[in-house]
């Protein structure tokens, strides 16, 4: 069992395409409605982080992923989020249940979009910014 910060357990996925653009979703719900963020969500009771990541990525983006290593952890309000690198293995990109939109974003795109607080800073600290 991995140690987790106190708060509601959540996961997020860092997925990149062949051009090393990062997959982001525009949030449909609070917190951060209308802002762009990494896809992800709550870990349901009985789920591992990896199971939650596969489920959330498919629900929000239509993509099937294979979870990879933990990249970092953040706390946002009541949420304790574990962010994992993941590899897209199938599916068709589309905005799903908790997303208004979903797309691959370059570094330039990040600076033009309304992002959730501290996303660029966090990705930079993790050396995870897209190209």
TrEMBL record:
Its cofactor is Mg(2+). Pfam families: NUDIX. InterPro entries: Nudix_hydrolase, NUDIX_hydrolase-like_dom_sf, NUDIX_hydrolase_CS, NUDIX_hydrolase_dom. Keywords: Hydrolase. The keyword Transport does not apply. Belongs to the Nudix hydrolase family. This is NUDIX hydrolase. It comes from Pseudonocardia humida. The lineage of its organism: Bacteria, Bacillati, Actinomycetota, Actinomycetes, Pseudonocardiales.
